[in-house]
Amino acid sequence: MAEKIKSLAQDLETAEGKQPQTPKYAKIGKLLKKDAKKNWAMYLLLLPAVIFFAVFCYAPMIGLLMAFQDFDLNLGFFQSPWVGFKHFAAFFHDMYFWRLLGNTLLFSLYDILFVFTTPILLALLINGVKRRRYRRVILTAVYLPYFISTVVVCGIISSLVDTNGIFGIIFTKLGLLEEGMSMLGDPRHFRAINIVSNIWQTVGFNSVIYVAALGGIDPCLYEAADLDGANWFKKVLHIALPSILPTIMMMLIMKIGMMLNVNFEKIYLLYSTPTYNVGEVISTYIYRYGAIGGNYSYTTAIGLFQSVFGFVLLLIANWLSRKFTSSSVF
Predict the structure, then answer these.
(1) Residues 156-199: tens digit of each pLDDT
(2) pLDDT tens digits, residue range 191-214?
C-alpha cells in the first residue's frame, strides 16, 4: 500500500513537471510590458523618434513597388501594371551602366583612400600635441568647414578654380590647363577637385571620433613606452593604432556599405557636360532621369540595386573584419 501511494505521488510530480511552459515571445512581451510600466517616461521620450523613423524611413519603402511596375501617377502603387524585373534588365543593358558603376566605385575608392584616412592621421597628430589649449584651437579650426553649406562650398570652389581664380591662373601658368578654360570643365582635374574639397570640408568633423577614442587610451601605456625609449612613431604604431582599431574598422565597414552612395550634392553642383564622362555617378543619373525626367519606375529600380549592392558589401566587409581583426559591427 505504501509503495502504491509513493508511486501515485511520483506520477503527480511528473504530471506537474510536464505542464505547458509559457512561450518565449509571451515572456518577452510580459517583460516589455513590465518595463514599460516602470520606465514609462523613457518610453515617452523614445516615442517621437519611433514615429519619425516609422513615417519617414519605413512607410516610404512602399515606393519600392515602383521598381517592379510601369508606375502611373493616376493609377497609384496598387493598380499600376506589374512588369517584374524589366527595369533592372534595362539598367544592366544600358549603354551607360559600366561608366556609371566605374565612376561611382572610383569616387568611393578615392574617398576611402584619402577622405577616410586623413581624419585618422589628423587625430593622431592632434593627440600628439601636449597642450590642451593648442589642441582645442586646432580641432576647432579644422572642424568649422563642416558647417559651411555644400552650395556655398561649391561656390567657393568655382571661384577658386575659374579662369580668373587663383588656382586657375596657377595651373594655366604651369601648362596644366588650357588658356581661358575652367578647371571644373577639364575632365583631368574634376575628380581631384572633388576629393580635395571633401577632405577640407569633412576632415575635422570625421576626426572627432578618433580623437575621442585616442583620449580613452590608458596613459600608463605611453609612460611605459617612454621608459623603453619609444619615439612618437613607435607609440603610434604599437599603442595608438591598435587601441583605436575597432573604431576604425567600424567606420570603414559603414563606409564600404555606402560605396554606391557617393557625395551626390557636390558632384551634381560641380559637374557639367564636358565632365559627364568622369563625373556622372549612379546618384546623379537617378536624379536626372527620375526627378527631372519622370522615369520613376526605372530610377527606383536603380536605387534598389544601389541598396542591395551596398548591403552585400556591408555583409562581406563585416565578415572579413570579424575574421581578420575580431572587430565587427554585428
Answers:
(1) 999 998 888 888 888 888 888 888 788 888 888 899 999 999 99
(2) 999 999 999 999 989 998 999 898
pLDDT in tens, 89-130: 999 999 999 999 999 999 999 999 999 999 999 999 888 887
Cell triple for residue 180?
581661358
153, 154, 105, 99: which is closest to 285 by C-alpha?
99
How many Å apart are CA 314 and CA 321, to the nearest integer?
A: 10
Quick one: cell of 36? 514599460
| Radius of gyration for the alpha carbons in the chain, expressed in angstroms and rounded | 29
Distance CA 239, CA 248 (A): 14
User: Comparing C-alpha atoms, which of 191, 179, 195, 185 is closest to residue 273?
Assistant: 185
Q: How crowded is the C-beta side of 303, counted as CA atoms within 13 Å?
A: 20
Residue 12 CB coordination number (10 Å): 10
- Torsions phi, psi of 71, nearest 5? -65, 135
Q: Which three cell numbers stand for residue 19?
A: 505542464
DSSP for 85-127? THHHHHHHT-TTHHHHHHHHHHHHHHIIIIIIHHHHHHHHHHH
Measured between alpha carbons, how far is residue 141 from residues 201, 205, 219 in Å?
11, 11, 26
C-alpha cell of residue 144: 568649422
State the Cα–Cα distance between residues 247 and 328, nearest whole angstrom.
9
- Are residues 182 and 168 in contact, defined by beta-carbon separation less than 8 angstroms? yes
Nearest to 253 by CA among 318, 191, 312: 318
Number of H helices, E strands in the chain: 17, 0
Separation between Cα atoms, residue 87 and residue 253, nearest integer Å: 30
Residues 6+ apart with CB under 8 A from 330: 318
Q: What is the reported pTM?
A: 0.81
